[in-house]
Amino acid sequence: MRKQISPATSVSGAIQLPGDKSISHRYGMLAAIAEGATKISNYSSGADCQSTLGCMRALGAGIEKQDSTVCIHGHGLDGLHEPAAALDAGNSGSTIRMLSGILAAQPFVTTIGGDESLSKRPMARIMTPLGQMGAHIEARENRFPPLTIHGGKLHPIDYTLPVASAQVKSCVLIAGLFADGRTTVHEPLRTRDHTELALREFGADVDVDRLSITVTGRPRLEGRELRVPGDLSSAAFFLVAALIVPESSLTIHGVGLNPTRSALLDFLAEMGAQIKILDVSSSGGELIGDVLIRKSPIRGGVLEKARTAALIDEIPVLAVLGAASEEGLVVRDASELRVKETDRIATIAENFRRMGLAIELQEDGFAVPGKQQFHAAEVDSFGDHRIAMAFSIAALAADGPCTILGADAASVSFPEFFDTLQRVAE
Ligand code: S3P
């Protein structure tokens, strides 16, 4: 799908966003191995989270959907059954990596794969710890999907993550639910803690001691009622839109403000953004609030080390903000960007080139000079949802209409993106 986006003079009004993608995956998976009914409201409408539901249904969970509310009937830790066919994780790294933690413990063999992009993403990072727990996993070239997982009885491990990855941490903790004893994961940096919070909500025993997380195996997980906060990573596109389009003032209601995700707001505020947070509450251990933002001059900045990891999903749209800022943006320590849905350093750079924007590349990052004029161009999502949305936002500040090729990729995390953009951009 091609989408034309015209330059805007203001991004204003109030919006609400679909449920957080990361939290939706976790609630969907844990509900299917809990006992009884779980009602999840504001479940993500994104295709990735629908892939998770499709897999859990194929494994025997009862799933009913009405709009954004999903009811899942689980039959406990031992209640899944062998799927009739290979599981399809679509474009979703979170689905294949976290669900592998469940599949590794099943008394049957499962194959799980996905689309062309997913088939190029590294899986050794989960195969190693699951192998140590006792699972046997075959993969294409020993590291790529599809995975064939020979599940069985798992034993607990004490595992130090070689890469800071919430998906890998979650995979091991979820597998630990099925092992007799305590499974511990040590992280090099604090990554998003939605799994820890969700596990506690469902009744598991989770201890957190700085960067070490321990789960006790064989808990009784119980179905419950949950609400997914709006997705802060989806909000990022609109926050940046309001910062680069002249007459902007935007309110985003009900956004997830979990401290392991909200580094985005601190970074924007440090660079000069006028941001207010109102009406903070909590649900399922997750913070939620309204975010108000006004057009403000942005200085620019440097992203490195822990901050890069905390903002990894927001970097495509922050690159766009950097080019519009006073002093530009430098991103370091971001080699993980090379193994996302696309090699995002390469796809950001290609679209910058098409829009006439300067960018200097490194193997693990880039530098974008500030005060740049965005030129009308035909840009491409390259099938990556965050690239589609980041460059749709860039188009709002261009000197003429832009075309986004493969714009439908946005629906992987945010199917309502273009409708929402049309409502607030003038
Ligand atoms: C996610 C973790 C991050 C992030 C991804 C979602 C999660 O990946 O980029 O979009 O839900 O745990 P890594 O854990 O691979 O860094």
The level of helicity is 25-40%
- Proportion of strand residues: 25-35%
Runs in which pLDDT lies below 50 for 5 or more consecutive residues are none
Number of helices: 13
Biggest sheet layout = 4 strands, mixed
- Oligomerization category of the chains in this entry: single chain
Shape: globular
What is the residue-averaged pLDDT? Answer: 98
Bound small molecules, which ones?
shikimate-3-phosphate
Structural class: alpha/beta
Strand order of the largest sheet: 2-15-17-16
Summarize the structure in short.
The protein is an alpha/beta fold.
Q: How would you describe this protein?
A:
With 426 residues, the chain is α/β, with parallel strands linked by helices. The protein contains 13 helices and 23 strands. The protein has helices at 21-32, 47-58, 93-103, 124-133, 166-176, 194-202, 232-244, 263-270, 305-310, 315-324, 344-354, 385-396, 417-424; strands spanning 3-5, 12-16, 35-41, 62-66, 69-75, 87-88, 109-113, 136-140, 144-150, 158-160, 182-186, 206-209, 212-216, 225-227, 249-256, 274-283, 286-294, 301-303, 329-331, 360-362, 365-368, 378-380, 402-405. β16 (274-283) and β17 form a beta hairpin. α1 (21-32) runs parallel beside α2 and α3 runs parallel beside α5 (166-176). The two termini are 22 Å apart. The relative contact order is 0.14. The model has no long low-confidence stretch (mean pLDDT 98). It binds shikimate-3-phosphate. Residues 22, 94, 165-167, 170, 192, 312-313, 336 line the site of shikimate-3-phosphate.
